[in-house]
Amino acid sequence: MIAVLIVLALGGLMHAARSFSAGLGSAGTELAFGYLLLSAYFMGKIVSRFGLPKLTGYIATGVVAGPFVLGLVSMDMGASLKIVKGVAICILALTAGAELNFKKVRPILATLTSMVFFSVVIGMTVLAGALLLLRPLLPFFDQLNFVQSLAVCLTLGIALSAMSPAVLMAMVSEMKSDGPVTQVMLASVVVADLVVIILYALGSSFAVATVGGGIDVMQTALAVGWELFGSIAFGLVIGMVIGAYLRSSTKGASLFAVMVCVVVAEIGSRVHLDPLIVMLAAGIWLENISKADAHALIGDFESAQLPVFLVFFALAGAQLDIYALSAVVVPVLIIAIVRGAVFYTGCRIACKRTNADAQVAKYAWYGLLPQAGLTLALAMLVQKTFPTFGVAAALILFGVGAVNQAVAPVILRIVMLRTGEAGKRAAHDFAEH
């Protein structure tokens, strides 16, 4: 009851402060950060009493307080906090990369590769086919012929296959989950997102060439290639730098790594590098090649990352335009169901072919459901690549992402409890209060 009163009081204070927004200037950034931090914190406590993950409370805070509902946090305020989003993605990516231990993955490599192929690669084709069949419900296809529609559907199908290491890592941390199912989930989403990025570069180039629009296909392909392979190369260098610091000094290692995350988040996009891939590569280097103790660093991260993630997931919720999404709710729900069904079927086929553990076969596919950062990034890329219909097409990506963002944390919490892997991770929970 006290937490509810605090949330209401914070909302009232924020509304009062927003009435003077014309004179806030740069102080609006600090105001939005403080409000989202406190509100998400207490909302997480409230929803946890109903058996829901705290992550759901953080996202709900952003949806309600965001510019499309109460408007307590404006679009400009959210944009001014982009550094928070960037740092959070970098920390989560570094943590996810450090969880991908090649020695642990080797015994499940056959299952992992089969899952990625049958669920993600085949899933892209199925999702593209579903979009093609749903063309009568999507008016932006009216201006495209069949071949052009096919190319666009393929591009969107690839983008819809993107997952979220960020959401999965957040739930793993919150539930302190560890075990075979968790390991397969983590490894599969990291590998799958890399596959999605590569295939999206190829698919979007083909779509641009088919649809036209005055965009240089070769230049687009080279730009995406630089973003992928340049990010990997830069990430390996970052991993070497962090590893060298860890070997030379254990004091302040987590602070140094956070500083690196801030730098990568700030300058990465300016030089057309993807901070997610950069820090994934750095984490993989630290865990598998460097002689430094990556787990000590990750443990320090997990004990101090609460403020960043509270605001990060609240901002993710604030980006959801529920009114615009209501216009395409039917095709969005159909595609979300098809996406879940194809992941389930693909994982079952993959696990049966490789004689995977029964628990992995039953539950691992749930880890593929979440969507967040990469899906949003690809949606914005679709808007930029196809100026005539990109906004309408990207709305499908935003909608399916919103559905999965809402339901996936709840499902993952149930799965981690049912597998018995919750509570087995001997690390501090980022959402521990």
Describe this structure in words.
By secondary structure, this protein is mainly α. It folds into two domains: 2-80; 82-418, Up-down Bundle (Na+/H+ antiporter like fold), CATH 1.20.1530.20. It has 20 helices and no strands. The longest helix is centred in the middle third of the chain and has 32 residues, at 180-211. 53% of the residues are buried.
Write the layout of secondary structure elements.
Blueprint: H1 2-18, H2 27-48, H3 54-65, H4 75-80, H5 82-99, H6 102-105, H7 109-133, H8 146-160, H9 165-175, H10 180-211, H11 217-248, H12 253-267, H13 275-288, H14 294-302, H15 306-318, H16 322-326, H17 329-353, H18 358-363, H19 373-385, H20 390-418
CATH architecture of the largest domain: Up-down Bundle
The count of β-strands is: 0
User: Low-confidence runs (pLDDT<50, min 5 residues)?
Assistant: 427-433
- Portion in beta strands: under 5%
End-to-end span in angstroms?
17 Å
Structural class: mainly alpha
- How many helical elements? 20
- Shape, principal axes of CA atoms: globular
Give me the CATH fold name of the largest domain: Na+/H+ antiporter like fold
Helix content: over 70%
Radius of gyration (CA) equals: 21 Å
- CATH class of the largest domain reads Mainly Alpha
Q: What is the average of the pLDDT values?
A: 80
Question: How would you sum up the major sheet?
Answer: none
- Tell me the series of helices and strands, N- to C-terminal: HHHHHHHHHHHHHHHHHHHH
